[in-house]
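Quick start: what a row looks like.
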Amino acid sequence: MNRSSIILTVAIGFSVVCLVIIFTHKSKVPQPVFVQAIDSLVSVECYDEFGIDAEGYDVIKGKIRPNEFLSDILLPMNIPYASISNLAEKSKSVFDIRKLNSGKNYTIIRSTDSLKKALYFIYEASPVDFVVYDLTDTISIYKGSRPTKLESRTASGIINSSLYQTLMDQDLSPALAMEMADIYAWSIDFYRIQKGDYFKLMYTVKKVEDQVVGVDDIQAAVFQHYGSPFYAFQFSQGEQVDYFDEDGNSLRKAFLQAPLKFSRISSGYTKRRFHPVQKRYKAHLGTDYAAPSGTPIMAVGDGVVLEAKYKKYNGNYVKIKHNATYTTQYLHMSKIASGMKSGARVKQGQIIGYVGSTGLATGPHVCFRFWKNGSQVDHRREKIPPSEPIKPEYASKYSAYLKQWKAKLDEITIPVVNSIQTKEA
């Protein structure tokens, strides 16, 4: 039997199975009908997943395919193009339908009569959030979310190669790396963590039914770095929630340690460096962070943009004045972020551009320059004072909170990786 015959035989058999299922369908107990297998669409039993009573209807699941438009999905479901166009227009204020992402799940609830017409289209933007397109009468569009619950967890690990790999070795979410990078952005240079550093965490995950859909928050953490423990405790002083150390000082300082979340230092601040392009020794009064082209570059502190333009050697760059003492500059961007112009105000952590190799550069990186009182200095050697510590009126409450959570952290054991022995904090 040749290939065509095999495919035809399978298709006929598949159709017969579908017909048997359809004709044995009972009005009170809907049965799943498998349809359009070529498009990876399957019907499932699902009667109230999105707050919609789907009993008595077909519920069809699928994934957005590359270069697939809403019309590609709904036209075969007997929704005319005029209605789809109207839906797209009405959707703009709720969700831009042009931003359907390849690989995202969607659900169609359709009638079981001869028309097989789509009644609802639900786009699942995330495991929690979704957008409902109600096509039953006049088109209505609204956002929804699945109910979630929080679950407390603990984690620990010893750095053997990288923070990311350590998390993977412990079957932990890589999102924890991003959370730790945010918490310790003012305390630890994550480009310089070393083998033998370790961490302990107390955190919560967000779950939909029994599926973990993300990290919610880190309540307490300690990161042992170069022999020193860096504690972080989440605490609220009224409206603002922040992280504080065991002495009640805020971990949020005036500047981030670096303008990129993760990267590597390719060239440090030095008075004498052999320039790879100019082929001569000269001062390099900045720190180069190598990263893939397009990596977001962040402002290390609040400030006002002095310059955002292109120069022959600097390439695309942004220069920011933070206060009367400090100014920073970010060079060789592939692109300057929208809104960056002289006089624009920026916030700490705001994206101001993207890594590139414009100007006098041999590869994608950002040259980060730091001025103090008008002179360029090595930002990694600067002692930046912390921001507002625990207020006196919250001191006793924080002391009790600290005692409780520090004791819990210290009870967490640390796994031994490749026989590395590390003394606990």
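That is the whole record. The longest helix spans residues 3-23. The chain has three domains: 3-145, 149-253+388-411, 264-381.
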